[in-house]
UniProtKB/TrEMBL annotation:
UniProt key word Transcription: yes
Keywords, alphabetical: DNA-binding, Iron, Metal-binding, Repressor, Transcription, Transcription regulation, Zinc
InterPro entries the record matches: FUR, Fur_C, WH-like_DNA-bd_sf, WH_DNA-bd_sf
One of the record's GO molecular function terms: DNA-binding transcription factor activity
Keyword match Cytoplasm: no
Short name of any one Pfam family annotated for the protein: FUR
Protein name: Ferric uptake regulator, Fur family
Organism for this UniProt entry: Sulfobacillus acidophilus (strain ATCC 700253 / DSM 10332 / NAL)
Length: 151
């Protein structure tokens, strides 16, 4: 997870001011590691401190932070973009387990695709720089609720 100082440095490099609203949005992501927040969820959290902040300001800030590679935008095919802090650039992204019933998203850290990447390099000369993998299914919580249709 990036440190606050490295995030501030990226803002400076992008010639962007650190406004109180931007700082609060960054801190929200740092204080919610592993969560995949939508703009609406960020807006709700920001309003606890800045009552007058508009949803449009949150959207603009999320787009700015995504453009500066501070945040990553992720689509889980649920009709809304979600955001999380970008991890170090030299590593692959983590993977996601997405529940089709309740929408819960869990992170999966183990990278099982390393052998495939090695094979692609050997056989095709193609060096994979990054990849994104999502597993769609039913989470343990929903399965425990006894719905046979999900078995």
């Amino acid at each position: 997870m990036p440190q606050l100082s490295s995030v501030y440095r990226k803002l400076e490099e992008g010639a962007k001011r650190l406004t109180p609203q931007r700082e609060l949005i960054i801190k929200i992501f740092l204080n919610h590691p592993g969560e995949h927040l939508s703009a609406e969820e960020v807006h709700r959290l920001v309003r606890q401190e800045f009552q007058d902040i508009g949803l449009a300001t949150v959207y603009r800030t999320l787009e700015l932070l995504t453009g500066l590679e501070i945040l990553e935008r992720i689509n889980f095919n649920d009709g809304r973009a979600r955001y999380e802090m970008k991890v170090r650039e030299e590593t692959h992204r983590h993977h996601h387990l997405v529940c089709l019933r309740c929408g819960r998203v869990e992170e999966f850290q183990e990278d099982l695709l390393d052998p495939l990447e090695d094979r692609l390099l050997q056989e095709r000369g193609f060096r994979v720089m990054d990849h994104e993998l999502k597993f769609y299914g039913i989470c343990a919580h929903c399965r425990r609720q006894g719905k046979k249709e999900w078995e």
